[in-house]
Amino acid sequence: MSERGYGQFCGFARALETLGDRWALMIVRDLLVGPKRFSDLHAGLPKIPTNVLTSRLKQLEAAGVVERRAMPRPTGGVAYDLTTRGRELDEAVIAIGRWGAKMLDAPRDGEIVTVDSLAMALRTTFRPEAAGDLRARYELHAGEIVLHAIVDGPQITVGRGPLEKPDLIIESSSALKELLAGAMTPRQALASGGMRITGTRKLFDRFAQVFRI
């Protein structure tokens, strides 16, 4: 039996042999947002030692979860990306994130929000059953982080950076978590000064309905 094995002929045990090590699923989470160079991964996961990041990437490559590929010009270089098998983890990562989001209260000392963690938070909190026929292009600013979410009925696309013509721009300094958790109404979030919007207020109300922990 492998030293990493659990001694059980079980799919869940096999999955943990690949993904159960510290940082492995965090790497998968960030790669679900898009391919990244080694330096990008380390910048997004600043507490991971470089030797551990190297080791986890090798393990995930060996398991067929991650692959290396050349980046197109002008960027160039080599990036890490999820394989088709790796992308099969998308629903599982979203489900775990939704489960964990209910445990969030105030940030602990030293905890940060990254563009990838916020992108996945939007995907995690998106409720397709609440979206109905909503068609909206949201742009979210949180400090220096800028990303966007395009809602097309029950489908969502989340990406880095601004949109050319967003339907609503949301600027958040402190109230986003409370809004997503339902602890604040859209009116309260705006009145608190923790959020500002540019665009139609109705789309902000729908944002609060569609994105919910």
Provide keyphrases for this structure.
two-stranded antiparallel ribbon; 7 strands; 11 helices; 213 residues; globular; 5-stranded mixed sheet; alpha+beta
Query: How many E-type strands?
Result: 7
Assign the structural class, choosing from mainly alpha, mainly beta, alpha/beta, alpha+beta, or little secondary structure: alpha+beta
Rg to the nearest angstrom?
Answer: 19 Å
> Can you give the helix content as a percent range?
40-55%
N- and C-termini, Cα separation: 41 Å
Description:
With 213 residues, the chain is an alpha+beta fold. The chain has eleven helices and seven strands. The strands form two sheets. A five-stranded mixed β-sheet has the order 5-4-3-6-7. Strands 1-2 form a two-stranded antiparallel ribbon. Strand 3 (135-142) and strand 4 (145-152) form a beta hairpin. Helix 2 crosses helix 7 and helix 6 packs across helix 7 (115-125). The chain is globular and about 55 Å long. The N and C termini lie far apart (41 Å). 23% of the residues are buried.
What's the short version?
By secondary structure, this protein is of the alpha+beta class. The protein is 43% helix and 20% strand.
List the helices and strands and how they pair.
Elements: H1 11-19, H2 24-33, H3 38-44, H4 50-62, E1 66-70, E2 78-82, H5 84-87, H6 90-101, H7 115-125, H8 128-131, E3 135-142, E4 145-152, E5 155-160, E6 168-172, H9 176-180, H10 186-191, E7 195-199, H11 201-210
Parallel strand pairs: 3-6
Antiparallel strand pairs: 1-2, 3-4, 4-5, 6-7
Helix pairs in contact: 2-7, 6-7
